[in-house]
Amino acid sequence: MAGKIWNLLLDASKLPANEQRRKLNETIVSWRGGLEQVDDILIIGIKI
């Protein structure tokens, strides 16, 4: 699973911040399925 997350973050890093958020949110909602909460997730983005 860690490889999939890494690839998702690398792909998203090439997008504007609002598109990164949309892509990550869609992926998390899809992964979570019908469950309200599976795990605690924290993703922090920093623009340099």
Describe this structure in words.
The chain has 48 residues and is mainly alpha-helical. Helices cover 56% and strands 0% of the residues. The protein is built from two helices and no strands. The protein has helices at residues 2-12, 17-32. It is globular. The N and C termini lie far apart (27 Å).
SSE ordering? HH
Mean pLDDT across the residues is: 88
Q: Roughly what fraction of the amino acids lie in strands? A: under 5%
- For the secondary structure, the number of strands is 0
End-to-end Cα distance, whole Å, is 27 Å
Strands, helices and their partners?
Elements (H helix, E strand, L loop, with lengths): L1 H11 L4 H16 L16
Quick summary:
With 48 residues, the protein is mostly helical. It is built from two helices and no strands.
